[in-house]
Fold SEC14-like protein 2.
Amino acid sequence: MQLLKNLFNIPYFKSPEVQAMKVETSFGKISSLLLAVVVCFLLVEPTFGIPVEEDLTITYKEKVALEKFRQLVLEHLKDDYMKQDIYLIRWLRAANLDLKLAEQKLLDNLKWREENDIDNLLSEDFSDFERDYPYTTDTYDKTGRPMIAFTFGDWDLRKAVLAGQARRFTRYLDRAFENVTTQIRAKQARGENVTQSQFLINLENFNLAQQGCIQCLPAIFTYFQHQVYYPNLADNIVLVNTPTVFEVVLRILRPIMAPETRVALKVFGTNRQQWQQFLYSIIDKDQLSRDFGGTRSSYR
Ligand SMILES: *[C@@H]1O[C@H](CO)[C@@H](O)[C@H](O)[C@H]1NC(C)=O
Ligand SMILES: *[C@@H]1O[C@H](CO)[C@@H](O)[C@H](O)[C@H]1NC(C)=O
């Protein structure tokens, strides 16, 4: 598997068959990178190293499937970003290149967006929730991936649920997904190599009454379930200070998680040294709040 050495040096491939596979329409830098197809004819199983490279390169087999997929779904794609290879390939990969399944997943997603007015989610006012259930979306890992970070144990989820706010609560969490995916697209438009985000969840103070209550579980469930609408968004989902009781919640959640979510999930216990070592390897300290061992002031 040959990877692009310099992703922004597009005329990297000289061979005529690669040139021939270039699609006429150019959808901007990142997707034209995708078009610089890495040819894998001779390889049985392409193996990829770094996730961002996996996102920015495409095998011949994927390229063929992608063009069929584009024809299949084109009429449903209303936003320009949806027509880009980098967007479409994720649905295909999430479906193991099964065109029908990928179409189904994508259409389900569009239906969900339409029915829930997701396009306007970022302009909704959630100031009350921001105070009670703070999360951050304005810090970045060492490679510039935006991060969603929060200390779940500080959230009185039960309160929101009992106040009939469960649905609004999951919307508020969906807003974080929208925030980072919007940021990622903006970064790509600026020529940055960013395709994913990081999720940091601190479970210190987690207790069954406030966050693990039976009525709370559907909200947590929905949170993980909605990851299907953002395929392969998470580079890592890092849980730190995970108490033993949360293992029960995880056991319930695992079967509904998308395979790539399961892969991204890194569950750390209360050994601070262990999880800090991992976080420091991917994130600078000034991008971490104190709850995560960093130097940024915490929001609590
Ligand atoms: C993008 O990623 C590639 C491969 O990881 C790297 O070689 C290149 O320098 C990166 N480009 C930018 C602008 O960061
Ligand atoms: C994402 O969230 C950050 C921090 O709350 C905010 O400053 C930024 O404007 C948001 N970006 C988008 C695209 O909503």
